[in-house]
Amino acid sequence: MNGTQISILLYERDAHLTQTMQWALQSSGYRVLSASHLGQFDSIPLTPPIDLLVLGHTLTSRECAAAIAHASVRWPRIKRLTLVHDNSSALAAARGRRLHLMDAPTRLLSTVSELVGCAASSPCSHIY
Questions:
Q1: Is 117 exposed, middle or buried (0-12, 13-18, 19+ CB in 10 A)?
Q2: CB atoms < 10 A from the CB of 86, how many?
Q3: Closest CA to 91 of 59, 114, 53, 116
Q4: Which of 28, 51, 64, 123 has the fewest CB atoms in 10 Å of its CB?
Q5: Domains, the chain, ranges and CATH?
Q6: Tens digits of residue pLDDT in 44-94
């Protein structure tokens, strides 16, 4: 995407899930930052740009929309991956494919790889 190490921002309030995802992604060679509230986005440097925003299942649809809007201004080419807890989740109504959170550990790395490998002109967003 940016010719250097892929940068991922995890936005999630569940510290254990964040830690698990961060470990898995870092072990696969990604640069991973995390935030537990939107205000932390502003302390993340603009360069290198964030390539992928991972939105956690603990966020409301309003929080996700605000995070997407904020991140898109800071890093215009950012892609996103949204984890949902169940099919009745408010987030499940958003655009993209859907994957139950329990499936995420086995598919997280392949999904991230697919997303960050997408062409810059592609919408490349998934709901998981």
A1: exposed
A2: 12
A3: 59
A4: 123
A5: 7-127 (3.40.50.2300)
A6: 999 999 999 988 888 888 998 899 999 999 999 998 888 877 654 444 444
